[in-house]
Amino acid sequence: MDKLKLLLWPIAALYGGITSLRNTAYDHGLFASRKFNLPVIAVGNLTVGGTGKTPHVEYLLRLLQKYKVATLSRGYKRLTKGFILADSKATAATIGDEPYQYHSDFPDVQVAVCEDRVEGVEQFLKLSPKPDVIVLDDAMQHRAIQPSLNLLITDYTRLFYKDHILPAGLLRESKHGAKRADAIIVSKCPATIQPSEIQSIRNRIQKYSASGTPVYFTGFRYGQLVPLNSVSPQISKHIILLTGIANPEPLKQYLKEHQFKLLHHAAYPDHYTYTTTDLEQLSKELKKHPEDTIILTTRKDAVKLMDSELKQYIQQLPLFFIPIEVYFLEGGDAFNNLILQHVALQR
To answer: CATH number of the domain at 226-322, please?
Structure first.
C-alpha cells in the first residue's frame, strides 16, 4: 500500500465500519428490506466506477425477451427527480444515459428510473400490463429492497479482493459484501486468459463469497462501427476517440489490437453531459489530423450526443459508435439456465 493510501486508511476504516454496521442492521432485520412477489434480479458491484454493468444488464434483457421485462435504475446525473417511466419524450437528460440507452435499444422493455428502488418497483406493479420480471441496475448497496437474485460483477482489471475501502481504494463496502451475491461475474476478461488463472481467481473470490456461489467469466465482443449520421465517410483506421465512461482502457486495448491508429483521446468523466463547446473543440481537433480521420465513441456516449441540442453539430462530424456485447468464456449455458430457471420458479 502506498503512502497516500496509508494516510487515508483511518477514514477508510471509519467508512468501512459505518457500511458494515448498516449491512449488519439489514442482515438482522433492524432495517426493513422489502421483498416482492415476482423475480427481481439485481446487477451490481462492490466498487466505484465501471465494471461493465450496462452490457451485462443488456445481456439479461436479451436473454429474458420472451417475458414482459422491466428495468429500473437510479438515473444517475439526470435532471429530474422521482419515478419516471421512459416514453417517446425521454432523453438522456431526463432519465440518465444508461437508462436511455436501454430505452433506445430495447423498445419492448419497460424502462424507469427512481432513486428509491422500493417505490420504483411499486410503481411498476401499478402498470398494466405489469412486468413479469424486473432487472435492477446498480443495486448491490440498495439494501432497502431484497432482490430474488443478486448478481455481483467484478472487473478483471480491478478485482474486488485486491482493493480497499474508500477513500484508500475503490470499494463501496467490505469485500465480505460478496456473500450477498447469488452469482459472481468476472467481467472484461481477455480472450487469452488461461484456465489456471481462471481457477486462481475463482479460488480467491470464493474466500469471500457464500459457499457454492458460482463464479463466471465474461469478456467484451466489439461489433462493426455504426455511423451516427448520413454524412459519415467510410470507416478509417485513423481515429479520434471520444469517451465519457469510467474505464476506457479495454476499448483502447481493442483498438490497438485491431490496428486502429489512435490520434487523440478526448476523455471525459463517467456520465459526462456533452456541450456544444465540447463538440466545437472536437471539430477543431479533427482538422489537425489526416483527412480520413473519423471520431469513434461508445454506444453509451452516442445516446447523449443525439440530444436535440447537439444534433446540428453531430450531423457535421464523421462520427461512429462501436457496439459492445458480453460473451462468456465458459459456463454461458449454465448461467443462462440459472437465470431462466430462477425466473420460471419465482413467477
So the answer is: 3.40.50
